[in-house]
Amino acid sequence: MKSLPRFYVSLHRKKKIMLSVSNLSVQFGKRVLFDEVNVSFTPGNCYGIIGANGAGKSTFLKIISGKQDANSGSVHLETGKRLSVLEQNHNAYDEYPVLETVLRGNTTLFEVKAEMDRLYAKEDFSDADGERVGVLQLEFEEMNGWNADSEAAALLSNLEIAEDLHYKLMNELDGKQKVRVLLAQALFGNPDVLIMDEPTNDLDYDTIMWLENFLANYDNTVIVVSHDRHFLDAVCTHISDIDFGKINHFSGNYTFWYESSQLAARQRAQQNKKSEEKKKELQEFIARFSANVAKSKQATSRKKMIDKLDIEEIKPSSRRYPALIFDQEREAGDQILNIEDLSAAAEGTTLFKNVNLNLAKGDKVIVHSKDTRAIEAFYSILMGEAQADSGNVSWGITTSQAYLPVDHDHFFESPVSLVEWLRQYAKTEEEREEVFLRGFLGKMLFSGEEALKMSNVLSGGEKVRCMLSKMMMERANVLVLNEPTNHLDLESITAFNNSLNNFKGTLLCSTSDHAFAQTLGNRIVELTPNGMIDRHMNFDEYMTDPKIKELREKLYQ
């Protein structure tokens, strides 16, 4: 079930500090990551930590969870409270059974249970052992330990880990199942502070929706880093922005933070505008945004409680957004793409079959499948990189395609500068000029000396920005994108999303970014082992339609 945003928390109750950070400073060599940071986190709120790549989001989570030391400063958790962290190492519990892995999420409870089990297993059980067991049983009962196994099993079931897997070893599970078990481990025992770094990675749509609903109704403190804007909007009461070595809280979710910071930036540029007019514009913006929340039909009583926002809190961001503009060299004709009876298999498993599709000009298609191999095979066939087992693919003669594959490392094997790397995709003499190429790279935030970086040492996000530069130079009228937001920061994702909204050509896109899928797609095509589904609707309509859900379940059987 889809959850709705928790935008604000009532000011009518006294706010108690659950976790505080005092005078925190972190420095790596000459680089200062955090400088005298003072910030606190209160119960009942969900804080989304945002910041540019390299700003220190993951480092901050490691410090407050005790996994990394700061140069100076302190972190204080309220006495008697428990902190839980979503495990990032998916193989950390490979030698343990699934249910036990979840129970280990509450270390104190698990240690009490383990000691009781050891004492009960003794052959020479003494009176002293009996007294110790009595003490442990009281502790265990206070922690609701007698219901621990059933609660852990219920969590696993909610995350679609079948009961027959609960007593198997973790190393017998596939990667996506492991992620769900580790998520259950983090959530187990109702921790007072829950810390999550990219919790939606490797989760499917239904699991993410479950997690959003769970966290939106969670009574304790949540601190999360995520590049998933839909997730941040659904669960966050505050955005915690890392900028200039400081961390500042802003009431509201990501969309509110982004739109308000953009409004503030525009106002700052309007030097001649009177302060009264600016204040009125901000007030109207807040009222409009707040009204959208209050009208939500599914809003809980807590979600309906809206803080009185301080206009002074709204400030422009120092974020840099890449300039993405996808122009078409020529407009395509009416014939875009025709697919007849297409099928493909891998290692004896059918990936998809009976795919019949005719694209119209301007279609923006979200290509979806539960099996990512199906999507990769589908695009490889469309782009002429692989052969189908059967069927035909025919592109219109007026079309040109620009392709972003999910794996593009092979484009960056040669040690050449970014200027030289981009030059190989230039079509005209003007485009080969260094001034032109540097200007193009500058739009993608490779300015100055960064344009001379070697292409074989780039980070994942830098590689994607280079691939987008290449695609913009190709000026195609059909864009084919497979997981285009992978490795990108929120600023690049937002700019990319906006540019594709403005793209006048045809789009084929597969993405695990919910906001991308929802805002871009006007047609959904799902590939299954027993046929395809093709519907002209947006992504949320498609995923929540009961009849389509029934059909999807049938086709995946």
Protein model, in words:
There is one protein chain. The protein is α/β, with parallel strands linked by helices and 557 residues long. The chain has 3 domains: 19-81 and 226-313, P-loop containing nucleotide triphosphate hydrolases (Rossmann fold), CATH 3.40.50.300; 93-189, no CATH class; 337-400 and 475-555, Rossmann fold (3-Layer(aba) Sandwich), CATH 3.40.50.300. The protein has helices at residues 57-64, 98-103, 107-120, 127-142, 148-158, 175-187, 205-216, 229-235, 254-269, 275-294, 301-304, 372-382, 418-423, 429-432, 434-443, 460-474, 490-502, 514-520, 539-544, 546-555; strands at residues 19-28, 31-41, 46-50, 72-77, 83-85, 193-197, 221-225, 238-243, 246-251, 337-346, 349-359, 364-368, 390-395, 401-404, 478-482, 506-510, 523-528, 531-535. It has a 6-stranded mixed beta sheet, with helices on both faces. Strands 14-15-16-12-17-18 form a 6-stranded mixed beta sheet, with helices on both faces. It has a 3-stranded antiparallel beta sheet with strand order 2-1-4, with no helix packed on it. A hairpin with a 2-residue loop joins β1 (19-28) and β2. α3 runs antiparallel to α4 and α9 (254-269) runs antiparallel to α10. The longest helix has 20 residues, at 275-294.
